[in-house]
Write a structure and sequence with these properties.
This protein has 287 residues and is of the alpha+beta class. The protein folds into three domains: 47 residues, no CATH class; 97 residues, no CATH class; 119 residues, Beta Polymerase, domain 2 (2-Layer Sandwich). The chain contains eight helices and eleven strands. A hairpin with a 4-residue loop joins strand 10 and strand 11. It is globular, with a radius of gyration of 23 Å. About 5% of the residues have low confidence.
Length: 287
């Protein structure tokens, strides 16, 4: 239903209690209301628009793990296996050549993330970062970050490279940027730890944290179910991003905010939002 208050038009649920959208004109409000009704019908008819039922997930169970040793598939005690190191260097060089990163701009290749720490899982990527002197890359240096991110995405979409079942995720990092607190960092060029991982007492099954994970998951499901406007989805995506950034800066890899972020990611909620928005946009562009 619609409600006009002051200069704003509100879209409400059937009870009239929950606000589903706020608009500056009646036309925009009617458009959202119509989209909601169309979405309901299409879900019932199992149309092309991905339905809420396809996105529904049962109660989220903890997915993160913490071990007493580094991943034995990649490490022999504290030493990186030679065949793993050699293959990662080969992969890094192949990506740098493909992305046209000058050899003299690459100052090191390092492994970070769960597979350089004790919090790996069978699904964990091998995060391979090329440390770059951006000043050594010619042509449009103000756009170099965007260029390298695009190259990373295109490479990921067109390649399927694994080491002992783990995807290799490549990233070009400014050599002047620091690393996340508590994160292990292993240099391939020097074949040694730049920052050694520290084993900690970590409770990944904290019910307080899992309650927050479930609350955020429910918020995502509610946005999808109500066919909320793009602004609402942008707001919650920015909230997740800011939560993780602040958590990493203040308390490191095992901060509450970062654990919540990873649980939501592992449960597929970020993909759920992106897939839903992509499907809705495709439907709106189709005849």
């Amino acid at each position: 239903m619609l409600k006009h208050v002051g200069s704003k038009w509100y879209v409400l649920d059937s009870s009239g209690k929950k606000v589903l959208g706020k608009h500056s004109t009646k036309e925009k409000a009617v458009k959202q209301l119509s989209a909601i009704e169309i979405s309901k019908k299409e879900r019932a008819d199992e149309s092309r628009l991905l339905s809420f039922s396809q996105f529904f997930t049962e109660t989220i169970a903890p997915s993160l793990q913490y071990h007493q040793e580094l991943n034995p598939e990649l490490w022999s005690n504290f030493d990186l296996k030679s065949e793993v190191k050699n293959k990662l260097v080969e992969i890094g060089n192949a990506w740098a050549d493909w992305a046209k990163i000058p050899f003299n701009a690459i100052k090191d290749m390092v492994i970070v993330g769960g597979n350089a720490n004790y919090n790996y899982t069978p699904q964990s990527d091998i995060d391979l970062h090329l440390l770059i002197d951006v000043d050594a890359i010619p042509n449009c240096p103000e756009y170099i970050d965007e260029y390298l991110k695009d190259k990373k995405q295109i490479w990921s979409l067109t390649h399927d490279i694994k080491i002992y079942g783990h995807d290799v995720e490549l990233y070009a990092q400014d050599m002047n940027d620091g690393f996340v607190q508590d994160q292990g960092v292993y240099s391939l060029n020097q074949d040694r730890w730049i920052a050694e991982p520290v084993h900690k007492e970590v409770n990944l099954n904290d019910p307080h944290i899992m309650k927050k994970v479930q609350d955020y998951a429910d918020q995502v499901d509610m946005l999808i179910q109500s066919n909320a406007d793009d602004d609402a989805f942008t707001k919650i995506k920015n909230k997740f991003k800011d939560m993780r950034t602040k958590a990493l800066q203040s308390a490191g890899e095992f901060s509450e905010g970062n654990i919540i972020f990873k649980e939501l990611r592992n449960a597929g909620y970020f993909d759920k939002v992106n897939n839903y928005l992509r499907s809705r946009a495709d439907q709106q562009l189709s005849l």
